[in-house]
Amino acid sequence: MKIPLKRSAGLAIAGIAAVGIIYACAGQRTATTNLVTGDAASKVYVAPGSYDEYYAFMSGGYSGQVSVYGLPSGRLLKLIPVFSQFAEDAYGYDAESKPLLETTYGFIPWDDSHHPELSMTDGVPDGRWLFINANNTPRIARIDLTRFETDEIIQIPNSAGGHASPFTTPNTKYVVSATRFSVPIPNTDVPIDSYKKSFKGTLSFITADQPGKMDIAFQILMPGYNYDLGHAGKGPSDGWFFFTSYNSEQANTKLEENASQNDKDYIAAVNYKRAEECVAQGQAKPMAVEYFHNYVDPGSRTAKSEKKTSVKVIDPVNCAGVVYYLPTPKSPHGVDVDPTGEYIVAGGKLATVIPVHSFTKLQKAIADKAFDKTVDGIPVLKYDAVVAGEVQKPGLGPLHTEFDGKGFAYTSMFISSEVVKWKLGTWEVVDRIPTYYSIGHLMIPGGDSKRPWGKYLVAMNKITKDRYLPTGPEMAQSAQLIDISGDKMKLLLDFPTIGEPHYAQALPASLIKDRQVKFHKLAENTNPWVTKSEADGGITRAGKKIDIKMIAIRSHFAPDNIEGVQVGDTVNFHVTNIEQDWDILHGFAVLGAQTSELILQPGETRTLTWIPKGPGVYPFYCTDFCSALHQEMQGYIRVSPAGSSVKLMANVSKKAQAQLAEAQKEK
Ligand code: RUQ
Ligand code: CUA
């Protein structure tokens, strides 16, 4: 079947009518053609040794990680592990990082991440941190952008499917998380068809401006709808937060059909300053819950977990003015606030227009009490009293909108597979460009902030099909770089992504690049198992636990011959990379290890736990090519039968050997 792109829209309309969206346009062009015009190549060419202009942080989607790309080249710079174990650098495997993945459900080695979000100062990305959500088991992570490492993860209780997350307020006071799935709160064993009666939503506000101290400031109890996305107000709307919801039908089965009945669902407009007042006045009820807060201690670079046991919950019935509902057609997905803070744009994925609400009108409607009704203590404002305008005939399946800071908005259209550019205030469509295929999010550096850097737009497409050399049934998802510096959008580049890049954020490289940590100062390493010089290495036994302190430096380990270990022992290799030089890493692996290798940044200590299964001599080696004599960087550990008389031995310095002999004498 060969259907030109534009015509496939008709198919999709039929799909909507049947309340089953057909993913129509994807892959139905006849062949991949080169749609690039003019001198696109020179616009994305970054010469070897030169730097990209922007860092882009893309969600890994179901990979649970973040990938970092340079723009405009589309070069992959790094993968940052966040919510999934990552054998490449032992994240979630070594003893130091494992506590980051602890939850009340136990250790979780995988999650699904959706929305990276940069920290902001005065509504503009500042390059301090990147936040990202875990969708399946709701959590929010903080990544430090001086090291590109996950430092902190907080779990969100009373939530299931942390999708509307972790959008930030203009000064990063809060990041938010709303529950996608309403659930019984507290979650107990009830019949699923008691949904309307027992299921509730929650909106969580999490303090985020102090590293290591994230906590849930309060939660707002909401009607049992699905909450989808959010964005903070700014400028005049600073102090407000907007969340989309769908399933105001409160269906608990076949949502595809049953949650698409109502003509309008809602955007929840939350006055969080009012919420703070209610908390201060004691109107928020403490509720017993359990959730984990995990963070990395900077000196030891070791993650710690703490369990928290209470959260403050606001019921809008007891806190008048905290939430209003803005009727919005039709199962809205994205909600995006323009750089001035006046316009609130909704992506009604089944709507035929893009509705835009006005913050000024919202204020007036509240003052005039222009309400249709009240739901669970939440006034529903009249649509006509809050809507600023509608973009007519934008295309099909509007999802997300970003802004260029020059008065234009860009909306992704999933069904008609295109980006539509329109003008704020007049609501007229001024340009459109096809995407290959089925765009989800789009991103302009700073494009959801007060000050977008409106030069490029990245389309993140859900379906790839014929865009690259085929790689079997599964193709990498595809991002496309589009030049938005002129009147007409121009396609510059396709590049494959890791996992599913639901969303991305980007900022000028100059905000981050000169603040990079190059190595960890050995003198400041407070890991209890640090070895700061060769003389300090050694081996100790406590019952069946063996601890080996070891250094790695080009090109040897010390100690590198170890004896006295017995079958039945648990052996901890605590390896410190004592290099004090940028990008000089070592690895560590031992024959038969049941976990990942270690990767050691200069100046840090990491621990690999190994349980030898039988007697023998086991080699270990460095897994990261570090010098001309990298292949010489190796050692042996001897394992004897249980009860053997072989003495503990580690061939470290004379001093360490003397101490060991002393310790053995005392026993
Ligand atoms: S979503 S394709 Cu998970 Cu942000 Cu809109
Ligand atoms: Cu150290 Cu290779």
Distance between the termini: 82 Å
Indicate the mean pLDDT: 93
Helix content: under 10%
**Secondary structure tally: strands:** 45
C-alpha geometry? globular
Strand-residue fraction?
A: 35-45%
Total number of helical segments? 8
Major sheet, described briefly? 10 strands, mixed
From the alpha carbons, calculate the radius of gyration and give it in angstroms.
28 Å
| Uncertain segments | 1-31
Ligands bound, unique: (dicuprio-$l^{3}-sulfanyl)-sulfanyl-copper, dinuclear copper ion
- Secondary-structure-based class equals mainly beta
Gist of the model:
The protein has 667 residues and is mainly beta. Helices cover 9% and strands 41% of the residues. (dicuprio-$l^{3}-sulfanyl)-sulfanyl-copper (RUQ) is lined by residues 114-115, 163, 229, 333, 399-400, 440-441, 502-503.
Tell me what you see in this structure.
With 667 residues, the chain is mostly beta strands. It is built from eight helices and 45 strands. Strands 6, 7, 8, 9, 10, 11, 12, 13, 17 and 18 form a ten-stranded mixed beta sheet that branches. Strands 41-40-43-44-38-45 form a six-stranded mixed beta sheet, with no helix packed on it. Strands 35, 36, 37, 39 and 42 form a five-stranded mixed beta sheet that branches. The longest helix is centred in the first third of the chain and has 13 residues, at 5-17. The site of (dicuprio-$l^{3}-sulfanyl)-sulfanyl-copper has 11 residues, from strand 6, strand 26 and strand 30.
